[in-house]
Amino acid sequence: MDRYAVLGQPVAHSKSPRIHAAFAESLGQKLLYEACEIAPDELGPSLSRFHAEGWAGFNLTVPHKQAGAALCESRSEAAEAAGAVNTLIRTATGWHGDNTDGAGLVRDLLANLGVAIKGKRVLVLGAGGAARGIVAPLLAEGPAELAISNRNPWKPEEIAAALKPLGNIVPRTHLSLKGDRYDLILNATSAGHSGAIPRLPPKLIAEGGIAYDLNYGQAAVPFLVWAKSEGAARVSDGLGMLVEQAAEAFQRWRGLRPETAAVLASLRG
Ligand code: ATR
Questions:
Q1: Which residue of 15, 94, 108, 143 is 20 to 30 Å from 181, comparing CA positions?
Q2: Which pLDDT belongs to residue 219?
Q3: Percent of the chain's residues with pLDDT above 70
Q4: Rounded to whole angstroms, how far apart are CA atoms 1 and 125?
Q5: Which 3 state secondary structure label does DSSP give 38?
């Protein structure tokens, strides 16, 4: 039976085994998917060993997405743009790295939530790995503007320069956003993990605007509470993105795209 796993540290809390087991069952696919705790300095040796052992594919999660990209023998355009991989696909001689995070986010926004990106003013908060992973697929949807803001301007400037061939990204700092309004604000910072939100000016959310946190569970609460208090018409956490990025990975491994609605509903339940 083909074997897959999510590699991370920590990884015990990961919902990926449950999601992929549900996908496999719904499509009558026989496969094994588990969670493996791997320390950062063990990733390279482990991937070599797993290849020799015949594993079929992996998802990489914190803290491996960027280091994993360098360990792949080839990478998709999405992985190159993101500078990170979340999905490894077995090849004869190594691993092909892909990144389905941005595609998962866009799918959750468009298909599950009915949120338009085309022609909208979109703001990404944060300029770390999570932010960089989503900007190329967002640009591809044709927003009126895509801004990335961070506490200091250097990381947004770096991302804007690196992805210049894909489109225009406006680098900002959080405080410089004063007076601007966005239709869709995506929180890609890790601040929520310590119960915080970035310091943001008031009235950032346009009328009818939507706030989305790439995190889910407790880590999404502070930003979504802030967004509601600032008058967001709608807010969402990133659980749908998690399920959709998994579905994209499953499709790359198995050639079949699972239905996501039932899995998402059961995770929410
Ligand atoms: P990830 O892979 O989750 O993106 P990362 O690469 O460490 O993790 O990036 C974390 C992001 O969250 C950064 O944009 C970081 O801002 P800085 O570059 O200014 O450090 C942002 N972040 C983390 N904690 C934050 C906080 N309390 N307020 C604002 N931004 C925060």
A1: 108
A2: 96
A3: 100
A4: 42
A5: coil
Most ligand 1 atoms within 8 A of CB, residue of 65, 123, 189, 215 to mutate: 189
Strand partners, 186: 124, 212
Residue 65 pLDDT level (bands cut at 50, 70, 90)? very high
pTM of model > 0.90 = yes
CATH annotation of 2-100+245-261: 3.40.50.10860
Q: Please report, for the chain, the start and end positions of each structural domain, with discontinuous segments joined by +.
A: 2-100+245-261, 102-240
Tell how far the Cα of 243 is from the centroid of ligand 1, in angstroms: 23
- Identify whether the C-beta of residue 51 lies closer than 8 Å to the C-beta of residue 95: yes
Say whether 102-240 and 2-100+245-261 share the same fold: yes
Q: Which atom of ligand 1 is nearest to the CA of 65?
A: 2
203 in active site: no
CATH superfamily of 102-240: NAD(P)-binding Rossmann-like Domain (3.40.50.720)
pLDDT in tens, 160-204: 999 999 999 999 999 999 999 999 999 999 999 999 999 999 999
Rounded to 5 degrees, φ, ψ at 79 are: -70, -40
pLDDT, one tens digit per residue, over 143-166 is 999 999 999 999 999 999 999 999
What letter represents residue 10's amino acid?
P
> Which one, of 171, 164, 166, lies nearest residue 131 by Cα?
171
